[in-house]
Amino acid sequence: MITNRKELINNILAIIWGPTSDKVYIYVHGKMGCKENAEHFAEIAIEKGYQVISFDLPEHGERKNEDYPIMPWNAVKDLQCISDYAMKQWVSVNLYACSLGVYFSLLAYKDMDIKKALFQCPVLNMERLIFDMMQWFNVTEEQLRVEKEIGTPIGETLSWDYLTYSKEHAVDQWKCQTYILYPSKDNLTPKEVVDEFADKHLVNLSVLDGAEHYFTERRYLEQLELWLRNNI
Q1: Which residues are bridge partners to 180 per DSSP?
Q2: Considering only CA atoms, which of 92, 106, 118 is closest in space to residue 27?
Q3: I want to staple 17 with a disulfide (CB 3.0 to 4.6 A). Which of 52, 62, 149, 150 is the partner?
Q4: How far is CA 24 from each of CA 19, 54, 138, 227, rounded to the nearest angstrom?
Q5: CATH number where 46 lies
Q6: Which keywords are on file for this protein (predicted)?
Q7: Domains in the chain: how many in total?
Q8: Is the entire prediction scored with pTM above 0.90?
């Protein structure tokens, strides 16, 4: 068991992993994740001299019962609280984010002095993803505008406010060196979206051939492990 302690940061309960260091990774989990998911990542990061700070996104982990929905404006506010704390506590601040956590990080940290970012199975273009989901379930933009929220068979709720926000807050800048692990069969982020992002920014792209957005097969987990050890 690696050393860790809990810290309350602006009413957000965070875990700080590892012995004192001047370097840290902010760990942003994806949908259905929680702050405790950072443990294995932290084991590797600590070996390389880093600490890790992880926390629950809205409606996740110990925050499931809060009246505080996982909308991008709430997530951005929380991520900025964590980064404000991190910038005061550590000299070198780095970032790991997964899936939806990548999208929130791109919004919250676009102006921040991050040394390095690691993105696993990233959601990079939320507007595109929402329109793709609307197409999957035959929902028109006008329907969504009128109804505001529409449920889908996969348990996701399409939201007019979410779509409007994603249009008004397009990810148009990202300045730090970024390493992306992209599964070739990702159904949430098409390869052309990843390529477009990589062409515009400082990106080292690794493609996990045959993997889907959520991968659990041992061979893919082993490749994830190798990717983390090579890039943290």
Answers
A1: 119, 205
A2: 118
A3: 52
A4: 11, 10, 44, 18
A5: 3.40.50.1820
A6: Hydrolase
A7: 2
A8: yes
Rounded alpha-carbon distances, angstroms, from residue 109 to 46, 115, 116, 214? 23, 12, 12, 25
Mean pLDDT value across the chain: 95
Round to whole Å and give the CA distance between 25 and 41: 10
Angle value at C-alpha 55, between 38 and 223, nearest 5 degrees: 25
Tokens of 232: 């943290």
**211 and 190, same structural domain?**
yes
Ramachandran assignment for 222, one of left (phi > 0), alpha (psi -120 to 50 degrees), beta (any other):
alpha
Q: Which residue has the tokens 């443990």?
A: 39
Answer whether residue 154 shows pLDDT above 90: no
Q: How far apart are CA 74 and CA 14, in angstroms?
A: 16
DSSP 189: S
Please tell me whether residues 137 and 116 are part of one structural domain. Answer: no
